[in-house]
Amino acid sequence: MSRPHIGFGAFISPLHPPGENPTLQLWRDLELVEWLDELGLDEAWIGEHHSGGWGTIGSPEIFLAAAAERTRQIRLGTGVTSLPYHHPFMVASRIVQLDHQTRGRVMLGVGAGSAPGDAHMLGIDPGEQRRMTAESLEAVLELLAGRGPVTRRTDWFTLRDARLQHRPFRPGGIEVAISSAASPQSMQLAGRHGLSPLSFASPRPGGTAPDLARQWEYAEEAAAAAGRTVRRADWRLVVNVYVGESRRQAMEELREGAAAWMRGYFGDIVGLPVDALGIEPGGEIEALVESGAAIVGSPDEVADGIEQLHKSSGGFGKLLVTGADWASRENTKRSFERLARFVVPQFNGSLEGFETSREWVRENRTEFVTQAIGAFQRAFTDSGAAAPKLPLPVPATPEETS
């Protein structure tokens, strides 16, 4: 069965349950990125959080600099840099330096920031974050373009004859992605500036699934108005995915972690009324799967779920697996390994040549093996020995060749 062509990566916020050594958590996250690189996944995105006790990385750029030294080919992105928290010159300057340190493997993911505690500590009015994001984004893009000095003044940053000393490592520049949850603004900014959209496809507990098809329309409409184009191949969807040997086994491996995430993070920290949603204790993972917030099962079941997401969204270029610490360290690594071994090949075309060759040999096996048996028997008779009797192959059936 032919499936759509999709790339794969990971979106590692990260969110870790409290109570574990935070220093070791950082090293475990670095180890996970190393593992993704060994498995051949395309990219890893690392988030920025400063409060709440679950998000443990405050500077994705510092983390990615260390990850770059441990990896060979995986692309590395900030997932995301919260633009209202930083002066745009520093955002642009840091990412271009990282671009050179990684020899062009870095991507800049940007957003408004999602943690209310972070904005509060920085004295930022949540109602101003989207405006600030749009203003900063324009400045960052202008600086990265490097076409001349940038002068801009807003009520929260000033640029005066600003220009970067470094230029991006590659002539094509640095890929810039913008995160989108449910509101139209981020998709509209992606379209207006020709950026790569990065959408969260999983609903929050108790929420409705985002209308991904409509989200893409926002980007297309804004792109058309600005005289730009957006490509579905550049659209990334972020979703919880876990690959087990079977769905039953996978659900059991996730049960405790999913409950801690839903009740400990969204219930206790974010304040969502999880109990009022009618989710029974111990049934959190079932609720997440049923709502579409997670794709869980055997490799083929996960592949079917991803294909269904591709169909319902209208099509996207890459799927990013959320790193949410639902499973143990060992099981998380096994899930990614099963993803890379059994799911990714169904979407990247790497099996097509093998399938074609297998079918070709099966369809022609009578001719091939008969010739081989004849040559083998002639070797005996040419030497004056009695040739052994060997069974001829059974012709391929229509069912085998269909």
From TrEMBL:
Keywords (A to Z) from UniProt: Flavoprotein, Monooxygenase, Oxidoreductase
Pfam families listed in its UniProt record: Bac_luciferase
The Luciferase-like domain, residue ranges: 9-312
Keyword Iron: no
Record keyword Flavoprotein present: yes
InterPro entries membership: Bact_Lucif_Oxidored, Luciferase-like_dom, Luciferase-like_sf
Cellular component, GO annotation: cytosol
Domain of life: Bacteria
Molecular function as annotated in GO: monooxygenase activity; oxidoreductase activity, acting on paired donors, with incorporation or reduction of molecular oxygen
Family the UniProt entry places it in: Belongs to the bacterial luciferase oxidoreductase family.
Name this protein carries in UniProt: Flavin-dependent oxidoreductase
Source species of the chain: Peterkaempfera bronchialis
